[in-house]
Amino acid sequence: MTAAHLPTSPEGRAAARRKTMGRVLMAAPLVVLLLAFLVYPVGQLLSLSVWGRDGFTLAPYQQLFASPLYFNVMLITLKISFFTTLLSVILGYPIAYLISVAEPQRKARLLFWVLLSFWTSFLVRAFAWIVILGRRGVVNQTLTSMGVIDRPLDLLYNFNSTMIGMVHALIPLAILTMLSVMENIDRSLPRAASTLGARPGTAFWKIYFPLSLPGVAAAAIMVFVTAIGFFIVPALLGGRRETMITQLIIDQVQQTLNWGFAGAISVLLLVVVLLVFVLYDKVLGLSTMTGSGAPRAASAKPQGFGHRVGDVILTVLGDVSDRIIALFPRRKRETGKPPLALSSFVWGLLILMSLPAVLMIPLSFGSGGLNWPPQGFTLQWYQQMAASPVWMQALTRSLIVGIGTGVLAMLIGTPVAFLLVRSEMRGKGLMLAFVLSPIIVPRMIIAVGLFYMFARIGLVGTAFGLVLGHTVVAVPYVVMTMMAVLRNYDTRLDLAAQSLGARPLATLRHVTLPILGAGMMSSFLFAFATSFDELTIALFASGGLNATLPKQFWDEVTLQVSPVIAAVSTCLFVFIAVLIFVADRLRRRSAAS
Amino acid sequence: MSSSSLTVQGLAKRYGEFVALAPTSLDVPAGEFLTLLGPSGSGKTTLLSLIAGLASPDEGAVRIGGADVTYRPPYERDLGMVFQNYALFPHMTIEDNIAFPLKMRKVGTAEAKARAAEALEMVRLPHVAKRFPRELSGGQQQRIALARCLVYRPSIILMDEPLGALDKKLREQMQLEIKRIHRELATTIIYVTHDQEEAMTMSDRICLMNAGQIEQLGAPGDLYFRPRTVFVADFLGESNLLPARVTAATGDTLDITLAGDAGTAQAIASGAVLAAGAQVTVMVRPQNVVVRSAVEGSGKLKGKLADVMVTGSLTKLYLDALAPGLPQLVAAYPTRSLSDEHRIGDLLELDWQAADAVAIADAKGH
Ligand SMILES: Nc1ncnc2c1ncn2[C@@H]1O[C@H](COP(=O)(O)OP(=O)(O)OP(=O)(O)O)[C@@H](O)[C@H]1O
Ligand SMILES: [Mg+2]
Predict the structure, then answer these.
(1) What's the confidence (pLDDT) of residue A336?
(2) How many structural domains are present in chain B?
(3) What are phi and psi of A302, to 5 degrees?
(4) How far is the alpha carbon of B189 from chain A, nearest alpha carbon, in Å?
């Protein structure tokens, strides 16, 4: 509000004051939570790297740069993250493309498999690869029985197995991010191109592809930032030479309790992540991340050298694709359907994406352990799991923490979403960036910072501490979901209710909330699922005894690989599948009403 | 500029059980301006997409300039399409948008540039070449879409409600522009609109569609004054539709009795041959109805004046017929003075020339 518009009457001023107060109250809980459990602990961890017991010191940094070990680990981390990003985006692109152009029913089917992969625990999926690639695993056994090899291959604990696990873990994220941009590409544009004389290859490369680039860029940065802070896959599927930077932080905290050094590594990691973001912003502009706003490259006048080179490359790509397509006989009656080769490729990838977790199901019922093929039929692993107090306590704790996180994140995230969508306040962009910062700061840094803080105020091992930590990382998703819902919500309904005599609270209760219910439910589920699969924070903050399900899973997997884990994996997988199904039903019901 | 004829033969499209377009045939001579008119969901876009090759038909054939193109992809049909939402490429400048079809045809860069400038000249927007589509107003974008379509001189241009999003004033301007371009280039145009007036003023012929079928195809005047079905009579403009029975037929001239024995009259048969005893609907346009005070007793119908409406140049009288079974009647004449001579509740009689009454055979199913 500018000075010229300030109300002059006392009533007007009072009303304006009330409005400001209201806004502050809406934003306060989330801001306080993030300040207390994100900014403070992370800041403290970073300061620990220069502020030792005896005052200011640079010793941790000297240690960091003294040995080539850490530098090499950083290089490996970057290398793994880079290739993971590259492969996830390239392989994910055709899947996202096919989903975006599919008819509604087909789209729902394809999307289900992507979502199933997306929500299936990283742990379950990494564990599945251990079983598949192991010496007596699916691949080796199949090749041996076919006589292709006579001794099992060493498929695990190397760069390739790490890459397989990483790409498998992050490709759903890449697909979903690209999809959100592709869904907004006007479908009549490629059609228009074809009436103007463009062959399919040219229409794709010169029209569709440039328009989808913001999605590719957003996917790339999301995957890269997630990959660089990853430790589950390299720890379970990599060898010594695939150690990533976050694993070093875990070692420092869990084994040597060297907080100063853990802080120094965190600073290094954070600096690298920030550099990547700065680079991204320079090239594309951060606003493309949320899918809103045109990419900066497109708004520049296209006279630059880079633009012309890009144009020539796309023209050539289009030409080449058209020549290749021309080699195949044209199917007469199938205008508008994606080519068969593309569909089969995509379905192949989708099967590969879901297969590992699905393979757990037969193994969990086999009496022969985790060797392929499964032998016999037994429920003993499920019985062991149900009889084990450790697993059952972990389940209870995960459910409690998950529900607590879901409720808390929804309660404090929704008002902020309202504020960001509805009100005309200054510093909206800054507020949004602040709210989204838990996604950008590598999870490991938050986790270690929280651990240090919790240890001193006695929150380690408590459900309450975990709920706070998980809410910090889940709340950005709640805000983003609710913002999307609110943008589609017709505010005239509120005005209509108010004109019919409803006061603001009554309007909220009788009109707004019932309509937004489905959106709130899905953001609750989002937060719940985030907490339910969260390992990094739980790894430290759940303490030794009060493990959550992922923590328990992690402890078991790193100690010994037992068929009980296959049973647990199957349960988790089925649980997630049901959850997605229910969420989809809810969404459809709300769309129908 | 070459322009091609278009022939559509038994073309049909189904989505599952639903018939979006029943087998439809259509002949458009080169250079004609044909408008597809009809209610929402009547299959206009479907027909256009089949002609353009954006969808494939379940049966039937499309011929452009005599060549069968039924299964040719859009990019080999040499036609132009103006999409309802313009479909300008947002990542290209206006110039690049317009030059795109030329590039696809391997026209050299210099010539493409020159021709794009020429096309911009034609739609009177030479100054926007370097802008992006989102930097133009709706009407300007519309004209660019037209320019992009004209620049490669396709032999047929398809336009799907191209003026749908424009305000009245801009719409009328653009209508004139399109007509001018059609005159200058003599290209064949298939034009879709919801707007009757637009259809009447612009077209050589109108193809009125309903429920996936052609209801009637003909010159605008034919459709208006000689509708063949009740649907056409009702859809185009206001009309009095009176149920009646044929008592005698001599050639096209019929003697009829109006429903409820309200009166007898003569009418011209439209379309089907009608014999005595046939049930028909008689259509009389409001402006052909003459209204008099009931004292003379020579009119064809009597009615009580229910409402008077002055719509600027026209005054409309709405009357409740005395006889049962007749709908409300309407008469219209040029507004002559501020106050009309008739009062609400007056008993009036209605009359019309035999040649202005059109008898339409009652068909089942509409
Ligand atoms: N992809 C589709 N799947 C199923 N039905 C469709 C599809 N496309 C169109 N239809 C149906 O076919 C019928 C004809 O649609 P069409 O788009 O041709 O109508 P239209 O005359 O262009 O209508 P409007 O004036 O509203 O644009 C409609 O009932 C529509 O619901
Ligand atoms: Mg249409």
Answers:
(1) 57
(2) 2
(3) -80, 60
(4) 15
